[in-house]
Amino acid sequence: MAPPRKSKLPKPLPDGFILTDMEKKKWRLGKIIGQGGFGLIYLASQDVNKPVAADTNFVIKLEYQENGPLFTELKFYQRAAKPESMQKWMRSRKLTFLGIPRYWGSGLAEYNELRYRFMAMDRLGSDLQKVCECNGGRLKKATVLQLGQGLVDVLEYIHENEYVHADIKAANLMLGYRDPDKVYLADYGLSYRYCPKGVHIEYKENPKKAHNGTIEYTSLDAHKGLAPSRRGDLQILGFCLLHWLCGSLPWDSLLINPDKVQETKSRLIDNLPDSVQQLSVSGANTDEVAAFLLHVRSLEYQDKPDYQLLKVLLASVERGSLDFSVPQGPVEESATKGADPHTSKKSDKCFNNKQACNEDYCGDDDDEEEKATPIPTCYLRGPPIGPGAQPKQKEKEGLPAVRRSLRPRTVQNYAEDDDDDDNEEEEEEARPEPISACYLRSPPKGPRAQSKQV
């Protein structure tokens, strides 16, 4: 039988199917609880003599053997995330928790002449993307900073083990199944070994690989076609923190044009810290995120970041239980008044019970497209427009009304074994210009007012 096309989801294995991993441990499959990318996610159990319980602590990710993402993820766990190595590192840092899911085993299986690859993992709960959707796109500042500190720990660990994640985003951050206060950085299908055998990959721009990643958060390095690096991971994290804190990003309306997104990000970074500080929303200034991104900007491509300093920059609040309730303040009040009643009810339902949003991990929902709706006026950070006023929309003076979906977007894979063309000509980069006032989201100025150029 010809091998199946890699772009298709695998044909499901029957309920109760027994898998044997490379260490001869047996796993029984339960029901499918989700799918994402090219794989299926099953409930699983090590007790093969009875059906898998609904509250089992394990899942198995299953793909066709020929697929690449699960193989890449397996290599990461086998090389960099062995449980004993993680425990030793945590003790050296005096940490009680490190947000990397536990890997339990992997192997190959065959059914009806089709070959599969599988990986057994800890079962996780809902992803942070769903939490953000419940909140209208925002999280409380204390929660954002605590998430940032925990993710810096995760990135320091994987960086010290020669890997970068390269696709940090809310859809890849999972709440613990038993404890939603624990948040895990998951999905290492795009992880990249940036420092094989201790030798950092060289700086080389490749236009064929430009803009790889999830476009909202792609690092400037990735926009240029550079291989992922430590500073790239941290810049992606900085963009995520800014998004969770403010509810949107200055380039949200430009996502169909990667070059424009890159240009806007460059202006934001070139004009730090003012460009980020001016994005502050009611009750939540962005000073810490501005300082974080400013330090990341100072790093060279091969530099080792000062992770402890980055944690200090985000440490203006004490670490405690994560609060995923809806941020309060004038911005949220106006949003509630103009919100769809179904959305408001959903938000109340999500956070009257802390675990109400902690559903099983279901992977990406790319097959179910939702029509993007204009973001409420309150999130645009300008003064309210009067009932009879008509806002001016000029391409050169301001961004169009932001229309975006919070649904995770398709990412492009960075092929680790793809050969570079040594004879490619590098495109000449235009010198970045100061960020325009429209991108700073401060209240609009009068027609004769002059914007400050930093």
UniProtKB/TrEMBL annotation:
Top EC class of this enzyme: transferase
Keyword Acyltransferase: no
Chain intervals with Acidic residues compositional bias: 415-430
Ranges where the Protein kinase domain occurs: 27-314
SMART domains to which the protein is assigned, alphabetical: S_TKc
Keywords: ATP-binding, Kinase, Nucleotide-binding, Serine/threonine-protein kinase, Transferase
Thylakoid is among the record's keywords: no
Region listing for Disordered, in residue ranges: 324-350, 362-454
Pfam families noted in UniProt: Pkinase (PF00069)
EC number: 2.7.11.1
Chain residues that bind ATP: K61
Top-level taxon of origin: Eukaryota
Start-end of Basic and acidic residues biased regions: 339-350
One MF annotation (Gene Ontology) recorded for this entry: protein serine/threonine kinase activity
Signal peptide: none
Annotated family: Belongs to the protein kinase superfamily.
UniProt-recorded name of the protein: non-specific serine/threonine protein kinase
Species the sequence originates in: Channa argus (Northern snakehead)
